[in-house]
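Translate structure to sequence.
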């Protein structure tokens, strides 16, 4: 005798799949989703503040970004300066929004006359007949010797970009000419995909080894920090001549410095994360030792992010797959205020949302991008009441703070929130970029 219909189970990456089973992408959970790639993988990129205003919500969207390649030969690498235009609201999202609008009108007690319904139905049919708009990639390439481990744009001057290469060189570039060309370009220029421009770097500093850690100060314009695989950290000060004075090494870590983050409020304070499992807080006025230190993870600390809206909160991600949140007012071993072990691989990036202080996102080697909202709490009764018979109930080990999961990319490395388009995210992986906005973010 067979039991009645079973509720489906939540599938998590790493779970076994039956023979012939495949995962399907659900377009209805995205307001927009677009994928694109270059001829080489990019481990790192940055989204650029632009002239189009903030906050902006109306589709279609345009955004600007810079990325660094990992080519098969050192001389084949380049910085990709990009504009993505025509990021349109998807058909599925438009239909969902119309259904929500219709339901809201009915709830408010509006008359729902035939003319209103005909207008809504006509709009739906028009969209169904039309073709889905495709985003366009505009690009300028700047020659770069060596694979690019990390690239970051100066927040106060987005055309000023720093790159850290596997040659051990940190270089600062002025990409204003390339960005100005892209701003005025209505359609992708013919041949722009293949042409690589030669531009002289504004400043070059060679570390004792390659590295992955660079960050610009959001408080002191032009101030840069860089950290290498031999545990050395240097702070760069801009000079009136348009160059930088690179100071002596900050010493304290016992292994590779993996990430750096400047304080969002104090111009002399920055944080570092290391393979030695620690996070350290530094003051530029004291090079010989860090101000604070904490054993943050059970393995390498790969990435950190300083909350710009709540400046005493710091998030970290480690090789142990854990996402941890720290209160800098009470920083000590084991003092994290949140600890999520959802990811099944090393955390490869973490970033707080720029306009929602309780929200952040992570990427992981398990090929997931997870969006978290620390303000959410589990309510089992509400979950049961809202879940249709055909929907799976969230398992007890699934954190209620997990708001959204994006997957489908291979070897995911880095993500960023757009600083001016609410909810827009971009992620990079070995197989290219995804640009998307979840419906619930």
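Result:
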């Amino acid at each position: 005798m067979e039991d009645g219909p079973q509720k489906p189970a939540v599938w998590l990456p790493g779970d076994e799949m039956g023979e012939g089973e495949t995962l399907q992408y659900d377009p209805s959970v995205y307001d927009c989703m677009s994928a694109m790639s270059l001829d080489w993988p990019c481990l790192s990129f940055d989204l650029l503040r632009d002239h189009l205003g903030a906050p902006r919500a109306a589709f279609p969207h345009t955004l600007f970004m810079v990325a660094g390649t990992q080519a098969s030969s050192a001389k084949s690498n380049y910085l990709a300066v990009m504009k993505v235009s025509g990021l349109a609201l998807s058909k599925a999202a438009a239909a969902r929004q119309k259904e929500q609008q219709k339901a809201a009108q009915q709830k408010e007690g509006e008359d729902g006359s035939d003319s209103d319904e005909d207008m809504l139905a006509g709009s739906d049919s028009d969209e169904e007949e039309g073709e889905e708009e495709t985003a366009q990639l505009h690009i300028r390439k700047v020659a770069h010797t060596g694979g690019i481990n990390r690239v970051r744009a100066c927040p106060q001057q987005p055309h000023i970009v720093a790159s850290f290469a596997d040659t051990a060189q940190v270089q600062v570039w002025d990409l204003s000419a390339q960005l100005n060309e892209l701003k005025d370009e209505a359609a992708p220029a013919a041949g722009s995909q293949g042409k690589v421009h030669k531009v002289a770097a504004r400043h070059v500093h060679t570390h004792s080894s390659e590295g992955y850690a660079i960050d610009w100060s959001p408080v002191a314009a032009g101030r840069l920090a860089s950290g290498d695989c031999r545990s050395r950290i240097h702070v760069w000060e801009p000079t009136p001549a348009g160059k930088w004075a690179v100071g002596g090494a900050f010493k304290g870590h016992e292994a590779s410095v993996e990430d750096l983050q400047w304080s969002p409020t104090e111009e002399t304070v920055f944080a570092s994360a290391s393979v030695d499992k620690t996070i350290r807080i530094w003051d530029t006025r004291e090079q010989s030792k860090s101000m604070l230190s904490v054993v943050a993870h059970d393995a390498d600390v790969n990435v950190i992010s300083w909350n710009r809206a709540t400046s005493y909160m710091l998030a970290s991600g480690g090789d142990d797959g854990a996402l941890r949140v720290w209160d800098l007012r009470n920083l000590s071993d084991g003092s994290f205020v949140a600890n999520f072990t959802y990811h099944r691989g090393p955390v490869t990036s973490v970033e707080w949302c720029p306009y929602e202080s309780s929200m952040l996102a992570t990427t992981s080697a398990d090929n997931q991008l997870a969006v978290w909202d620390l303000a959410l709490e589990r309510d089992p009764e509400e979950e049961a009441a809202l879940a249709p018979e055909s929907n799976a109930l969230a398992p007890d080990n699934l954190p209620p703070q997990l708001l959204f999961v994006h997957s489908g990319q291979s070897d995911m490395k880095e993500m960023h929130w757009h600083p001016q388009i609410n909810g827009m995210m971009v992620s990079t992986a070995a197989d290219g970029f995804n640009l998307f906005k979840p419906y619930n973010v």
